[in-house]
Write a structure and sequence with these properties.
With 221 residues, the chain is α/β, with parallel strands linked by helices. Helices cover 43% and strands 10% of the residues. The radius of gyration is 17 Å and the shape is globular.
């Protein structure tokens, strides 16, 4: 089992929006409403800042882009350190992770979020024992939508790509899974960069993570 994190297992948009806006105001930019940030999430911090720049019609040189991205990451990390983070699992996420774990299925989170941030989230939410591996956006040379991090997870878990399943919420997850020869199911409530997840070219959709075991366990048995 491979899971995306932001918009699939956890609702992290509030924390991402807070960290992004704290970085932007340091450079004299306007605050972006969380509702807009939810439409911008996907592909990592650099793309997030680039989208913020386009939204506010600001030209960015590479040096300033790098600075703002670094500040975003610093603010995001501080949320956990200062106990300000509010990200929580979506309904059914915890129970599903635990149920599939008990069923003997090995699992990994494959996210474009930096590895250390994903680890901190799972530790705070006491979910670390529910998964076997976390692959972050900086774990491999390339990140989703490239299949490399998914294939890395499969290799580490000792599972053939065709015998696993990717669960995500965005076109990045679908493209990465397709390129890696991995079946993919999408949740209908995720971010997907502002696009309707129900239009994703995946193998199936679920409206809640609690629906996942009924799709998986018969196959596993």
């Amino acid at each position: 089992m491979l899971y995306d994190l932001d918009g699939t297992l956890l609702d992290t948009a509030t924390d991402i929006a807070l960290a992004l806006n704290r970085a932007l105001v340091e450079y004299g930019w306007e605050v972006i409403p969380e509702s807009d940030v939810r439409l911008m999430i996907g592909r990592g911090g650099q793309i997030l800042v680039e989208r913020a720049a386009r939204l506010q019609r600001r030209a960015l040189q590479q040096a300033q882009l790098n600075e703002i991205v670094d500040r975003f990451y610093e603010h995001y990390g501080e949320l956990e350190a200062r106990n300000e983070a509010v990200a929580q699992p979506y309904p059914g996420a915890v129970e599903t992770l635990q149920r599939l774990k008990r069923a003997g299925l090995r699992s990994a989170v494959v996210t474009n979020k930096l590895h250390r941030f994903a680890v901190e989230l799972f530790e705070r939410l006491q979910l670390s024992d529910s998964i076997d591996l976390i692959v972050g956006g900086d774990t491999c040379e390339r990140r989703k939508p490239d299949p490399q991090p998914l294939l890395h997870a499969c290799t580490t878990l000792g599972v053939a790509p065709a015998q696993t399943l990717m669960v995500g919420d965005s076109i990045n997850d679908v493209l990465a899974a397709r390129a890696g020869g991995i079946p993919v199911v999408c949740v209908t409530y995720g971010y997907n960069e502002g696009q309707d997840p129900r239009k994703l070219p995946c193998d199936d959709w679920i409206d809640a993570l609690g629906e996942l075991p009924s799709l998986i366990l018969p196959r596993a048995s």
